[in-house]
Amino acid sequence: MKVRSVFTCQQCGSQSQKWLGRCPDCGAWNSFEEERTGATEPASTTSPLGNRTAVRFADVDRVVAERLTTGISEFDRVRLK
Q: What is the C-alpha to C-alpha distance for residues 55 and 53, in angstroms, rounded to an integer?
């Protein structure tokens, strides 16, 4: 579990994830103070890809596109194999 910090403006109560020199809501200078909140829940163990599964590289469809000429010889000499 990780302890989380929130910075709160002591003038208007606005909150931020990081310390700010000036409050964007009320304009007060140096009014943000760090407040520690309770422990957060652990990160989810699910994959960011959802239910998708891995695909073998050899099974990926390859798209062949017509090459364009840029007029810059260094770019034009590079070829995809």
A: 7
